[in-house]
Specification:
The complex is a heterodimer of chains A (about 325) and B (about 350). Chain A is an alpha+beta fold and about 325 residues long. Chain A has one domain: 2-Layer Sandwich (Alpha-Beta Plaits), CATH 3.30.70.20. Helices cover about 20% and strands about 15% of the residues of chain A. In chain A, strand 6 (about 150) and strand 7 (about 155-160) form a beta hairpin. The relative contact order of chain A is 0.19. Chain B folds into three domains: about 1-45 and about 245-255, no CATH class; about 55-240, Immunoglobulin-like (Sandwich); about 260-350, Orthogonal Bundle (Cytochrome Bc1 Complex, Chain D, domain 2), CATH 1.10.760. Chain B has helices spanning about 1-10, 15-25, 40-45, 245-255, 260-270, 275, 295-300, 300-310, 335-350, and strands spanning about 50, 55, 70-75, 90-100, 105-110, 130-135, 155-160, 165-170, 175-180, 185-190, 195-205, 210-220, 230, 235-240. In chain B, strands 1, 2, 3, 4, 5, 6, 7, 8, 9, 10, 11, 12, 13 and 14 form a 14-stranded mixed β-sheet that branches. In chain B, strand 10 and strand 11 (about 195-205) form a beta hairpin. In chain B, helix 3 (about 40-45) packs across helix 4, helix 5 packs across helix 9 and helix 8 (about 300-310) packs across helix 9. The radius of gyration of chain B is 20 Å and the shape is globular. The two termini of chain B are about 30 Å apart. In chain B, about 45% of the residues are buried. The chains are: A alpha+beta (about 325), B alpha+beta (about 350).
Chain lengths: ~325, ~350
C-alpha cells in the first residue's frame, strides 16, 4: 500500500461510447513511435471480446498469493494493427474504393454495439478501460528487474523506461492486459494516469474530455471526494473483476437497463442486461448497487432530494476532480 | 591455509607439483612461457582454461577461423532463480578466441534449430540471443555465475538476432544496465542450418589475465529472455602478449576440482537433508533452495564447497532463499570437512 491512492469512478450509465476519452488519450500519448496499436484508454462494447481480443481469457492476476500464468497478446491477431490505406487510388480514374491495403480481421472496437441477446431483448453497454493502478499490482511483482513501481504519493503504477528490458512478464501478468509491448522501442509501456497533467493540477485527459461527465477522480482517503462517497458510502461503484486479486483502483457504477419485453409485447419485471452478467464483471455487489441507484432515481423523479444523484449528475464539471496536492509522504 | 588444503584435495595434483605451483604462484609469467604451471595444466585438462591466439586477421570474417581449435562449452538450462527454464537439454557451444592488437575476437557457434529474429511486427515473439559475460575484477575467487555479485560486477557483450549489440554491466541478478565504460561489440553473424555462427569483437572490456568468461544463449522459440536461458560455467581465457597472474591462476585451479568421493556425496545429500530443500537427481520436489540438478555444469567447485560450508557467504539472489533477517534459509550444517568435500565432488559431477 502506498501513502495515498488516486482512483477513478466511471459511471457506465453516462457512457455513450463516443470514444472521446480514447482519442484524448491517444492524441496525447500513443499516436507514434511503435505505439500506434496501443490504446492506454479504450471503450469496449460488452458483452464482447474486448481489446485485446478475449483479454479475459488471457490469464494473469493472482491465484491466492502466487501469480497466475498469462499469455502475450499478438499484435495483428489480438490487438489489430492500424491499417495502411492505398491513397493513390484517389488520384486514379475509375471508381475503385479506398480500402485498407491488407484485409483486416480484428481491431479495437471491432465488435462495437454487437452485444448479446435477441430482438427485442438484445442488449449491450459500454465499458471504458484503462490501467487500474492496482494496489496489489501483478505486473510489478512479475518484473524480475523491479522496473515497475508505484508512486508513494498517489499510487500511480509506472514502468521505469530506463530499467525495462522488454521481457514482458508484466504484459502476461496484467489480467486486464493494460500493459503493451512497444516492438519498436523494445520496452513495455502503459497508462501513466496522466501524471504530468496531475502534477500541473489538471485531471487525466480521458476524464477531463469525457463529454458525458462519467468520470470522477479523487483520492480514496478523501472523505469529501467522489471515490470515497461512491465506493465506500453509497457502495454503488464496484471494481472490475475483483477476483483477479490485484485490487484495482478504477471503479464502475454498473449500468441500469430498461425492462425486458415479454412475448406479449409488455415489459417484464426484469432488466434487459442480466444481473448475472454484471455480477461476472463487477462481483456480488451489483444487486445492491443497482437497487440503490433505482431508489435514489425514484426520489429525484418524485421531486425529492438525492445526494447520490446530485453527485452522479455532476452539475459542475470541476467538482468531479479533486486533485489536492498529496499529504506529506512518510 | 585454504589454498594449500584445497590444492592438496585437487584430483590429479601430486604433492610434488603443489610445491612447484606455490613457487610459480609468486611469479608473473607469460602465456608463451615454457614453464607451464601445474594449475594451468589441470585447468586445461578439465576444460576450464584455454589459450587465446594472437594474430592479425583483418578483416574479421567468420571464414578465417578454419583449422583453429575450438573450446567446447556446455550451456545448461538456468534453474537457480525465477524466471527459469524448467525444460530443455543442455546445448553445446564452440568458442574460438583470439586477440588482434587490443581487440578481443570471439567466435561462438551454437545449435538452435529455429531461427528467431527480432520482429517489430510482433508483440509476442522473442529473438535468439547470446551474451558473453566477463568477470570485471581479478579476485582470487570467481563471482557468482549469474550476473555477478554486489561489489563483484561483470561486463557483458549482448547480441540479439535482428537488433543492435549492447555493452552491459551487472552486479547481481536484476541489476543489468548499459555499460558506459565499454563500447558495444561489433557483430558478424551467419545463420547456418544447425544454428548460429557469431563473431563478436571489441576492445577488451576487462584487463585481467586470465580473463574469466561465460556464455549464455536464449532461444526465441522457447520465449528465452532474462533467466530463461542456457548458461555455461566460468571459463578462463589466457590472453597472449601480456603478463599472466600466475598466483590467481593457481588459486582458481585449486578451487577447480575436488578429490571427494562422488558416491559418498550422492548418499550424503540424502542423509544430511539437502534434498528436502534442493532439487537434485532422483529428488525432484525440493524448491526451498536453488535447483542443483545441473550444479556442476554451471558452478566452479570452489563455489559449491564454500556454499556448503558457509551458506551465508553468498545467497543466491531470490527472496525465497532468504529469511526475513536477510540470512540464508540454509542452516550452517557444520559438516566434517571430508563430507563437505564428498558433497562438493558429487555436485560438481552433476551436469
Amino acid at each position: 500500500m502506498t501513502a495515498r491512492q488516486l482512483g477513478m469512478v466511471i459511471d457506465l450509465n453516462k457512457c455513450i461510447g463516443c470514444q472521446t476519452c480514447t482519442l484524448a488519450c491517444k492524441s496525447q500519448w500513443t499516436d507514434r513511435d511503435g505505439r500506434e496499436f496501443m490504446y492506454w484508454n479504450h471503450v469496449e462494447t460488452r458483452p464482447g471480446k474486448g481489446y485485446p481480443k478475449d483479454w479475459e481469457q488471457a490469464g494473469g492476476g493472482w491465484d491466492g498469493d502466487t501469480l497466475r500464468p498469462g499469455r502475450l497478446p499478438r499484435l495483428h491477431e489480438d490487438y489489430g494493427y492500424p491499417a495502411e490505406f492505398g491513397y493513390e487510388v484517389l488520384f486514379e480514374e475509375g471508381e475503385k474504393p479506398l480500402r485498407p491495403k491488407e484485409e483486416m480481421a480484428w481491431g479495437p472496437n471491432w465488435d462495437e454495439d454487437q452485444g448479446a441477446g435477441e430482438y427485442p431483448n438484445s442488449y449491450f453497454f459500454y465499458l471504458p478501460r484503462l490501467c487500474n493502478h492496482c494496489s496489489n499490482p501483478a505486473c510489478q511483482v512479475a518484473c524480475p528487474r523491479q522496473a515497475i513501481y508505484k508512486r508513494e504519493e498517489d499510487g500511480i503504477v509506472l514502468i521505469d523506461q530506463e530499467r525495462c528490458r522488454g521481457y514482458r512478464y508484466c504484459v502476461a501478468a496484467c489480467p486486464y492486459k493494460k500493459i503493451y509491448f512497444n516492438p519498436l522501442a523494445g520496452k513495455s509501456e502503459k497508462c501513466i494516469f496522466c501524471y504530468p497533467r496531475l502534477e500541473k493540477g489538471l485531471p487525466q485527459a480521458c476524464a477531463y474530455q469525457c463529454v458525458g461527465r462519467a468520470r470522477h477522480v479523487a483520492f480514496l482517503d478523501d472523505q469529501e471526494g467522489a471515490l470515497h462517497q461512491l465506493v465506500n458510502q453509497w457502495k454503488v461503484a464496484l471494481p472490475l473483476h475483483a477476483e483477479y486479486g490485484t485490487q484495482p483502483n478504477v471503479y464502475y457504477v454498473p449500468p441500469l437497463s430498461p425492462p425486458k419485453i415479454g412475448s406479449n409485447g409488455r415489459s417484464l419485471d426484469e432488466p434487459r442486461v442480466p444481473d448475472e452478467y454484471l455480477v461476472q464483471l463487477f462481483g456480488p455487489g451489483v444487486g445492491a448497487a443497482l437497487e440503490m441507484l433505482r431508489e435514489e432515481m425514484a426520489k429525484k423523479n418524485r421531486g425529492e432530494a438525492s445526494e447520490l444523484m446530485d453527485l452522479l449528475i455532476a452539475y459542475r464539471h470541476g467538482d468531479m476532480f479533486r486533485l489536492d496536492r498529496p499529504r506529506e509522504v512518510v | 591455509m585454504r589454498l594449500h588444503s584445497s590444492l592438496q584435495r585437487s584430483r590429479g595434483v601430486s604433492t610434488g607439483i603443489i610445491t612447484a605451483v606455490m613457487g610459480a604462484a609468486l611469479l608473473y609469467g607469460c602465456a608463451e612461457s615454457p614453464r607451464e604451471g601445474a594449475g594451468a595444466q589441470m585447468l586445461r585438462e578439465t576444460n576450464r582454461l584455454s589459450d587465446v591466439v594472437q594474430q592479425s586477421v583483418w578483416p574479421w570474417r567468420l571464414d578465417r577461423w578454419e583449422g583453429m581449435a575450438a573450446t567446447v562449452l556446455i550451456l545448461h538450462p538456468q534453474r537457480m532463480i525465477l524466471p527459469r527454464l524448467d525444460k530443455g537439454a543442455p546445448v553445446e557451444a564452440r568458442l574460438w578466441a583470439q586477440m588482434d592488437g587490443g581487440q578481443l575476437l570471439l567466435r561462438i557457434d551454437w545449435p538452435d534449430t529455429s531461427e528467431d529474429r527480432y520482429s517489430t511486427a510482433h508483440t509476442e515473439r522473442f529473438a535468439d540471443a547470446l551474451a558473453v559475460q566477463f568477470v570485471a575484477d581479478d579476485g582470487e575467487r570467481l563471482p557468482y555465475i549469474g550476473m555477478g555479485e554486489p561489489e563483484r560486477p561483470v561486463h557483458l557483450w549482448f547480441w540479439r538476432a535482428g537488433r543492435e549489440t549492447e555493452a552491459l554491466t551487472a552486479h547481481g541478478f536484476g541489476t543489468l544496465e548499459p555499460d558506459i565504460a565499454n563500447p558495444a561489440p561489433e557483430a558478424v553473424v551467419q545463420r547456418t542450418a544447425e544454428g548460429w555462427s557469431l563473431l563478436l569483437s571489441g576492445p577488451l572490456p576487462v584487463q585481467a589475465n586470465p580473463l574469466a568468461v561465460s556464455l549464455a544463449v536464449g532461444d526465441g522459440a522457447e520465449a528465452g529472455r532474462d533467466g530463461r536461458k542456457r548458461l555455461s560455467s566460468w571459463h578462463l581465457l589466457r590472453l597472449p602478449a601480456r603478463p599472466v597472474d600466475q598466483a590467481r591462476l593457481a588459486t582458481l585451479a585449486g578451487a577447480a576440482g575436488s578429490d571427494g568421493d562422488i558416491e559418498r556425496g550422492r548418499r550424503l545429500v540424502q542423509e544430511r537433508g539437502c534434498t528436502a530443500c534442493h532439487r537434485l537427481p532422483g529428488s525432484p520436489s525440493g524448491d526451498q533452495g536453488p535447483d542443483l540438478t545441473l550444479a556442476g555444469g554451471m558452478h566452479w567447485p570452489g563455489y559449491l564447497r564454500r556454499s556448503i560450508a558457509e551458506p551465508n557467504a553468498f545467497i543466491v539472489p531470490d527472496d525465497r532463499y532468504r529469511t526475513p533477517e536477510a540470512g540464508s534459509l540454509m542452516p550452517a550444517l557444520n559438516l566434517p570437512e571430508s563430507e563437505v568435500e564428498d558433497i562438493t565432488a558429487y555436485l560438481s559431477s552433476l551436469r
